[in-house]
Amino acid sequence: MSSLKTIGIIGAGQMGCGIAHVSAIAGYKVHIYDLSQERIESGLATINGNLARQVSSGKMTDEERKTALALISGSSDLNDLAQVDLAIEAATEDESVKRKIYAQICPILKPEAMLATNTSSLSITRLASATDRPERFMGIHFMNPVPVMKLVELVRGIATEESTFSAAKEYVSSLDKTITVAEDFPAFIVNRILLPMINEAIYTLYEGVGSVDAIDTAMKLGANHPMGPLQLADFIGLDTCLSIMQVLHDGLADSKYRPCPLLVKYVEAGWLGRKSGRGFYDYR
Ligand code: CAA
């Protein structure tokens, strides 16, 4: 445990639930906020399902699952975040949505509370400027699925104070994760490298070089990746993939980051991958 005791999570999607899951296992009290009680219920059910998986595979006891679950609460009332020491925003990868959340939450948080974003690509310095506490704001970027992936990227904005950074480091280390520090450049380290690879896989499909199955099999068996790039794109969410490519394209002004038109078309069709039931694969 770190000096932070209570963690607030904004967003009960796959990332928010994963962060809540690993924080509760490490003994933190966790409160999840989302817009509706329905989303909270579905998030809590996901967490319970993933904890149960870990019980079945012998990674924890049922007693530990119950203890972790009892540490997690959730509501659709932002005021319930008034007592948290660290709030982690894990909302959709849309800057205007994040800015709106900061405007609503900053007057509610304790003045000394830290605020972090799980953004996978956006400028930490620019997001910090939309808060009342840029010195206590930074990026804490978890990987999906959070309970399984060992890495967390830490990113300081220009105004982030050293005490904020060291508290975040202490918190992430207490979750048994490995930290990598990235500078505040578009998409940081992991997504700067991973997303152009996924985008290239989509171009490979778009240009007819190979089928979905051929591309994924090639990268799984030919490069030893645990998932093929198209399966991974569906897993991340095609809207998130597109948004990260747009941030890279705009922020680095290089045509090598141009989002593949097929990715754009899928997102326009509402084919967002696993979460919407259809992407490069059919999940219905
Ligand atoms: N919660 C808890 N445990 C989980 C889990 C979850 N959500 N998902 C999988 N697991 C566990 C399983 O229970 C299983 O545990 P045991 O080994 O103890 O049995 C283990 O993980 C492996 O899972 P599976 O057997 O179901 O399936 P798998 O072997 O195919 O692994 C995977 C699944 C771990 C997701 C693997 O396919 C993988 O590593 N894929 C790549 C993931 C990746 O690249 N993530 C990064 C995405 S990029 C990102 O996140 C950054 C961003 O901002 C977009």
Question: How would you describe this protein?
Answer:
Helix 1 (14-25) crosses helix 2 (37-56) and helix 7 packs across helix 9. The protein is built from eleven helices and eight strands. It has two domains: 6-182, 3-Layer(aba) Sandwich (Rossmann fold); 191-274, N-(1-d-carboxylethyl)-l-norvaline Dehydrogenase, domain 2, CATH 1.10.1040. Strand 7 (151-156), helix 6 (162-174) and strand 8 (178-182) form a beta-alpha-beta unit. The chain is of the alpha/beta class and 284 residues long. The longest helix has 20 residues, at 37-56. Acetoacetyl-coenzyme A (CAA) binds at residues 50, 53-54, 57, 59, 120, 143-145, 147-149, 190-191, 194, 226-227, 232, 236, 240. Residues 50, 53-54, 57, 59, 120, 143-145, 147-149, 190-191, 194, 226-227, 232, 236, 240 line the site of acetoacetyl-coenzyme A.
Give a short synopsis of this structure:
With 284 residues, the chain is an alpha/beta fold. Helices cover 46% and strands 14% of the residues.
Described by strand count, sense and barrel closure, the largest sheet is: 8 strands, mixed
Q: Give the second-level CATH assignment, the architecture of the largest domain.
A: 3-Layer(aba) Sandwich
Question: How many DSSP helices?
Answer: 11
How large, in whole angstroms, is the Cα Rg? 19 Å
CATH superfamily descriptor of the largest domain: NAD(P)-binding Rossmann-like Domain
Neighbour order of strands in the largest sheet: 3-2-1-4-5-6-7-8
Distance between the termini: 41 Å
Our count of domains comes out at: 2
Number of strands: 8
Which residues form runs of ≥5 with pLDDT under 50?
none
What ligands does this structure carry? acetoacetyl-coenzyme A
CATH class of the largest domain: Alpha Beta
Q: Do you know the CATH topology of the largest domain?
A: Rossmann fold
Structural class: alpha/beta
Secondary-structure element order, as H and E? EHEHHEEHEHEEHEHHHHH
